[in-house]
Amino acid sequence: MIALDLSPQTLQIIEQATKKWSNIQDFSPSVPTKKLYQTATNLVIQ
Questions:
Q1: pTM of the predicted structure, to 2 decimals
Q2: Is the pLDDT assigned to residue 12 strictly greater than 80?
Q3: End-to-end CA gap in the chain
């Protein structure tokens, strides 16, 4: 896995992307935030 320098600004962007993907993919609220960040990060890498 590619290591990213997650600055606060980057985290904010990922958080916004995560929220959008949560709506699209219908993620369960019980899913840990870390997994959502990982998912969003993977999307950014792709």
A1: 0.34
A2: yes
A3: 12
